[in-house]
Write a structure and sequence with these properties.
Length: 369
């Protein structure tokens, strides 16, 4: 909130504050309180940025904790001043990419596979990955009465969120490494890969139509609360126990026309990640409050507590792991070998990190030239 000011000061800024206030009033904040915070920021005379609003997409998943907490706590809005946030919630990567391609979204939190697919399908012309957001938070959970070891998965029905999504690609690669065969298109083979929306996966598990799932949080912990057991944490499959699960992407057009707005958003996400890591319990409660606002019901402690512990928020995009995940998709014949040169533009992120006294991060040789 704004500090109390002398009357003459308030009069002096009244005219200059009017336009940003009107813009903010037309924005779509995640809560009324956030709109008030943005109006307050504009009223204090913050420097006006080049866009009146920024449209930000994310998923109602804990793996999108940076977005959930950053929006809920107003940490991103604070950096934007008079530029209003128009948040948009998505349930699948392709629909978010479609919104970005269609010009109805500017910045998005998204998994590596849809980011790769979107970049390749647009012939490198539409999006850039501008930051990391999260690592981890993906588990293989199973019905313990039917599956007791990893070898028991053969012949069973295991759900993934969507054909070609990040978890689907990782599971197909794991199956291939076991020497088993599965047709990536149909999901049929030595293991039946059942593409199921995360929203209905818990019901499918209760009904017995699937025997387990390779899914992100909080779906994995929801299944555990319903009687499943964790058979594998994907983190354990990676050499450094880190892999990208969520990136931040931007429309190339928006990046070119409004770099100041993009930089402000990144300042907000960096500060959000710092706040999450310094205040894990408060951040968990904040993320849960945002999920409640999205779905009308908060997560039970038995779900959010184990889920939250398995996720690491990070500014580092972990670019080398994105390349690995791309190679897995090629191996599964879901995509042809892509040219990922230029998919990253970490210029603004590294500028923000440097100003904050933090180490710069690498694009693993996949940066914009």
């Amino acid at each position: 909130m704004s500090a109390v000011r002398p009357l003459n000061t308030l009069r002096a800024i009244a005219v200059t504050a009017a336009l940003p206030l009107l813009l903010t009033a037309c924005g779509y904040g995640s809560e009324a309180k956030k709109d008030d915070d943005k109006a307050s920021a504009a009223a204090t005379g913050d420097k006006k940025l080049s866009a009146s609003e920024v449209r930000i997409g994310y998923f109602p998943n804990l793996t999108h904790a940076t977005a959930l907490v950053g929006l809920q706590e107003g940490l991103i809005a604070k950096e934007l001043g008079g530029t209003a946030i128009k948040p948009q919630s998505f349930n699948a990567g392709p629909s978010e990419i479609e919104a970005l391609n269609g010009g109805s979204l500017d910045i998005g939190f998204i998994g590596p596979s849809p980011a790769i697919n979107g970049y390749v399908k647009s012939k490198s012309s539409n999006l850039r990955i501008i930051s990391g957001s999260a690592s981890g938070g993906v588990k293989l959970v199973v019905n313990p009465d039917k599956i007791k070891t990893l070898d028991d998965l053969k012949g069973k029905k295991i759900a993934t969120p969507q054909k070609g999504n990040t978890q689907d690609v990782a599971f197909l690669n794991w199956i291939a490494d076991k020497g088993w065969k599965v047709d990536a298109e149909s999901g049929k083979g030595d293991v039946s890969v059942v593409r199921t929306d995360n929203k209905v996966t818990p019901d499918a598990f209760k009904q017995g139509s699937i025997d387990g799932a390779w899914v992100p949080e909080p779906t994995a912990s929801k299944l555990v609360a319903d009687g499943a057991s964790v058979l594998l944490d994907e983190t354990d499959l990676w050499p450094d126990k880190k892999f990208v699960i969520t990136n931040i992407i931007v429309s190339q057009k928006f990046l070119k026309e409004h770099p100041d707005v993009v930089e402000a958003v990144l300042k907000g996400t960096v500060k959000t990640n710092e706040w999450i890591n310094a205040n894990p319990d408060k951040a968990k409660a904040s993320a849960n409050a945002k999920l409640e606002a999205e779905g009308g019901k908060p997560l039970d402690a038995k779900v959010i507590d184990p889920a939250w512990k398995s996720i690491l928020v990070t500014d580092d995009p972990l670019a080398s792991t994105l390349k690995t995940e791309s190679d897995w998709a090629v191996k599964a014949k879901l995509i042809e070998q892509p040219d990922l040169a230029g998919i990253y533009d970490l210029t603004l992120l590294n500028k923000v990190l440097k100003a904050a006294g933090k180490p710069e991060v690498s694009d693993a040789g996949l940066g914009a030239k």
